[in-house]
Write a structure and sequence with these properties.
Helix content is 41%, strand content 15%. The N and C termini lie far apart (40 Å). The chain has helices at 14-45, 47-55, 57-72, 103-106, 142-159, and strands at residues 6-7, 10-11, 77-81, 86-88, 91-93, 98-102, 164-165, 171-172, 181-183, 186-187. The protein is globular and about 55 Å long. The strands form five sheets. A two-stranded antiparallel sheet has the order 1-2. A two-stranded antiparallel ribbon has the order 3-6. The chain has a two-stranded antiparallel ribbon with strand order 4-5. α1 crosses α3 (57-72), α1 (14-45) crosses α5 (142-159) and α2 packs antiparallel against α3 (57-72). It is an alpha+beta fold and 195 residues long.
Length: 195
């Protein structure tokens, strides 16, 4: 669809298509890896929820993955330029001014979430903004990220039943733009695979 698409009667150049896919790959690496690593640490801190999800994987996968993204909020903030004079919650903004969206704060908003500081894999509804919050800046890789998370945790639960996350050895990045894990040491018993 993208290769055949036309904008003002012009098809996209190979360069433009390549840049689009490069953005998709790059944007998805840090954010998805952050959600996966942090998700493992959240589950380790909440072994009852880890056990429940393992016992009913498909039944809890959708809400668990959304809660991991909400609670991790891989992208901390993002800046935008005001396109036209406007007002947000009584604050006047002029065209050309800069605004910053603090996704990490929005995902802990008490007016949106019950008990927002708690990690709850059954949270529903879960109107988080971890994928950008909708509109033109919504995450283009949302479906790929969800599939990657779904399969990683499924395989993890099936193949490493005694996985033990070393929370004392864990080291978070706590960056200004991306939240994530620098180190997440784990122990497990290797399973012999049949050829």
């Amino acid at each position: 669809m993208m290769i055949a698409a036309e904008v003002d009667g012009q098809q996209l150049r190979d360069y433009d298509v390549g840049i689009y896919f490069q953005l998709m790959i790059t944007a998805g690496i840090d954010t998805t890896a952050s959600s996966l690593g942090q998700g493992m640490s959240f589950l380790a801190r909440h072994p009852d929820q880890w056990r429940c999800w393992r016992e009913d994987y498909d039944g809890l996968a959708a809400t668990a993955m959304e809660e991991i993204v909400r609670y991790a909020t891989p992208v901390v903030h993002f800046g935008r330029t005001v396109a036209r004079d406007t007002e947000i919650l009584g604050q006047r903004l002029a065209a050309g001014e800069q605004v910053v969206f603090w996704y990490v704060s929005a995902n802990r908003d008490e007016t949106v979430f019950d008990n927002p500081q708690s990690f709850d894999i059954r949270r529903s509804p879960n109107d988080h903004v971890g994928f950008g919050g909708g509109g033109v800046h919504h995450c283009l890789g949302i479906h790929l990220a969800r599939r990657e998370m779904y399969h990683l945790f499924k395989v993890l639960f099936e193949t490493l039943p005694d996985l033990d996350v070393d929370l004392d050895g864990m080291q978070e990045i706590n960056g200004l733009f991306i939240n994530g894990m620098r180190h997440l040491p784990c122990r497990y018993t290797p399973v012999r695979m049949n050829a």
